[in-house]
Amino acid sequence: MKARNLVLIAIIVLSVSYMSYRLIRNLNIDSKVNQELVENSIILDVRTNWEYKRGALPNSVNIKMSDLKTIDIPIEKDKNIITYCSHGLRSIKAKYILKKRGYYHVYNGGSIHDLEKYFNNY
């Protein structure tokens, strides 16, 4: 009986955690991201170099998340920037790091899969 209750509790905790993750991720994708903005923005991939090499969006720039706070970012501060990563959580952090560093036109694009739809013509 105890084992079954523990399994049930674990399932509930995991389910709530996953739903919370999805909610936070989806609420933080900027609604302003659209085809026109994508075409007129720098697409910033904040995944690791290894992830980037395995597949990335066309013409995207890769600066891994761990470097955003410390390196000189080779992007002009007045440019539109759309961040993305593999699941959408690092892109949320990246947006706020860039804003703190003086980049004002930064948008969270979510995951690579959230942005793929804008690149069908490539």
Describe the protein.
With 122 residues, the protein is of the alpha/beta class. The protein has a single domain (2-119), classed as Oxidized Rhodanese, domain 1. Helix content is 43%, strand content 14%. It contains five helices and four strands. It has helices at 2-27, 35-39, 49-54, 89-100, 112-115, and strands at residues 42-45, 61-62, 81-85, 106-111. The protein has a four-stranded parallel sheet with strand order 2-1-3-4. β3 (81-85), α4 and β4 form a beta-alpha-beta unit. The longest helix has 26 residues, at 2-27. The chain is elongated and about 60 Å long. The termini are far apart. The mean pLDDT is 86.
Strand order of the largest sheet: 2-1-3-4
Number of strands: 4
Structural class: alpha/beta
Per DSSP, the total helix count is 5
What is the approximate shape? elongated
Instruction: Estimate percent helicity.
Output: 40-55%
Q: What are the low-pLDDT stretches, counting only 5+ consecutive residues below 50?
A: none
Architecture per CATH nomenclature, i.e. the level-2 architecture:
3-Layer(aba) Sandwich
**What's the CATH topology name?**
Oxidized Rhodanese, domain 1
Largest sheet: 4 strands, parallel
- From the alpha carbons, calculate the radius of gyration and give it in angstroms: 17 Å
For the record, the CATH class is: Alpha Beta
Helix and strand sequence? HHEHEEHEH
Instruction: Tell me the domain tally.
Output: 1
* Separation of the first and last Cα atoms: 57 Å
* CATH homolog superfamily: Rhodanese-like domain
What number is the mean pLDDT?
86
* Relative strand content: 5-15%
